[in-house]
Amino acid sequence: MAEPNRHPIRVVAESFFLPEQSDEDENRYVFAYQITIVNQGEVTAQLVSRHWIITDMENKVQEVRGLGVIGEQPVLEPGQSFEYMSGATLETPVGTMRGSYRMRTLDGSEFDAEIPEFVLSIPRTLH
Q1: Tens-digit pLDDT profile for residues 34-75
Q2: Which strand ranges, in their side-by-side order, compose the sheet holding 9-17?
Q3: Whole-angstrom Cα distance, residue 73 to residue 70?
Q4: Is residue 6 scored above 80 in pLDDT?
Q5: Is the CB of residue 68 less than 8 Å from the CB of residue 102?
Q6: 121, 93 in Cβ contact below 8 A?
Q7: Domains, the chain, with CATH or none
């Protein structure tokens, strides 16, 4: 039997195409995304680092790793959430992002919070 998730962290993403920063003639498609991270667990957890896997529609993969998000390493107490916006640039009009946040509890144990895959797409590309 699987062990229940002792540290449930919910991650919700919403993406937006930025036409004013994009150049379709140069295969430059810029997207913003808003992330909401919710600590649904019973222990306080700090976001230590991130790992993103960004894939365009030609299956070109970019991996991004780094400390925190937008220069912060937020601490989320049970029931708290943290929201931020960031961006990604693709060479195709459609792609996906997924990944994980490395979290640390007050007792020093670490775990990964999954970032479910979400789509980056210019309007009217996907139905």
Answers
A1: 999 999 999 999 999 999 999 999 999 999 999 999 999 999
A2: 9-17, 29-39, 81-90
A3: 9
A4: no
A5: no
A6: yes
A7: 9-121 (2.60.40.1470)
